[in-house]
Specification:
4 copies of one chain form a homotetramer. By secondary structure, chain A is mostly helical. In chain A, 67% of the residues lie in helices and 0% in strands. The first copy, chain A, has one domain: Orthogonal Bundle (Helix Hairpins), CATH 1.10.287. In chain A, helix 1 crosses helix 3 and helix 2 runs antiparallel to helix 3.
């Protein structure tokens, strides 16, 4: 799936409801809620917190995709093209961080 | 850009360094750092906090893409296909939330 | 309750278990999980997200205190005196931000 | 310092400005910003991310206290007594989690 198509899928989903997109601060709160659920899973899997049985089958891909869904909501609500934004970040890293860590031989 | 290609671009970037991918808890901490920068920008733009001049030209697309970059690092480190994970989340929403909010006529 | 006493209550609680304090990155993940639950509640109460009945009686004080509990765990694990740290932050604000916003007459 | 006194210090600070307390979603965004700064420091100290020199003298107590300051802002804005809320959380843990982890002999 193209990033543009992913943004469009999100838009089709949101557009069918009267409520439409939430404003940025409410979207951010939802993003934080989803990052919190990801944190819970990461801690259960890779941290010190013992995993309860009922959470044994949670899926990290699902938690990551839940976060991505809200990111794309925030982008859509602001009319941001994530494809261009992501290319920009890759370019920023190349310029800023290319010499920041030791490279492999 | 396809989501798969975005994951591959991230992998090409990370793979050139000796350090490689961080473990999940360190990646999560970096995700939280990037979400914090997004929160700062959202509050400056849409909240009550007055914007300082030096931050006037920050770009929300860049902050969103910084978050997405770390998400894709976490996915790559775990061998997760975000394309499939995102399709799964769209399907979950269709099943779970299709009747949760009033639809447009 | 004094801040020092609050830190000591946390220490008494944690000290009774074999596991003891978690390391900083795991504590941070738990902090993020608790902040996520707070975000969910804040969005339900003050955002656009409709509140489900089962969450109608959640308590914001409880969510704030859950976050504070993890903060004090992180402080204890590092041997940090939050009383002194909090005084330092108040002093920082006085020096840095005293003229940042318009004062009342 | 008592928790009540800490809440009062925050109130004295905020009350001198025209702007007063922010609404809950804006306070939450600020909390997330501060948690992001804490995450950055924790990753620098205890994670895989290399520490830059300019950040060598950052103080974890300060970052924790910055988070606590915003927590107390949120409590004050909602008229919440953190002393009572914290006692409630300690009691919740005693009831819910007293048998959750192995105790020391």
């Amino acid at each position: 799936m193209e990033l543009k198509a992913a943004q469009q899928k999100v838009d089709e989903w949101i557009s069918q409801f009267e409520e439409g997109y939430w404003p940025p601060l409410a979207n951010l709160a939802r993003l934080v809620e989803e990052v919190g659920e990801l944190a819970r899973l990461v801690n259960h899997r890779f941290g010190t917190k013992p995993k309860k049985d009922s959470e044994a089958d949670q899926d990290m891909g699902e938690e990551l995709a839940d976060v991505m869904f809200v990111l794309l909501c925030m982008a859509n609500e602001q009319g941001i093209d994530m494809d261009a934004a992501f290319e920009g970040v890759l370019e920023k890293y190349r310029v800023r961080d290319g010499d920041r860590w030791p490279r492999k031989d």
